[in-house]
Amino acid sequence: MEPIQQTLTCFGGVRAMARALDKSPSTVQYWVEKSAIPQESLAAILSVSESEGFGVTRAMLDAVSTAGQNKGPDDMDED
């Protein structure tokens, strides 16, 4: 499973992750399509995951950011 999919699974899917991060589902889906999450969103994901017990780890997020390096534009946040 790709790192982005592991992260998404911990949150319970695209809509659940979007809701938890106060993002639109289309933004989260865009991250999935690009297999990357913008750097500025990584801290929020880790914080929400820790407070809600979703199980996302720093290592998972590092893998997501590494996997997405050279994929798509620098700004992947549509909101």
Please tell me about this protein's structure.
This protein starts with a helix and ends in a 12-residue tail after the last helix. The chain has 5 helices and no strands. 65% of the residues lie in helices and 0% in strands. The longest helix is centred in the middle third of the chain and has 14 residues, at 39-52. It is mainly alpha-helical and 79 residues long.
Observed structural traits:
79 residues, mainly alpha, 0% strand
Q: Could you state the order of secondary-structure elements as H and E?
A: HHHHH
Assign an overall shape. globular
Structural category is mainly alpha
Total DSSP E strands: 0
Mean pLDDT: 87
The percent of residues in helical segments reads 55-70%
The rounded Rg comes to 11 Å
Determine the strand fraction and express it as a percent band: under 5%
Please outline the helices and strands.
Layout: H1 3-11, H2 14-21, H3 25-34, H4 39-52, H5 58-67
What would a concise description of this structure say?
By secondary structure, the protein is mainly α. It has helices at 3-11, 14-21, 25-34, 39-52, 58-67.
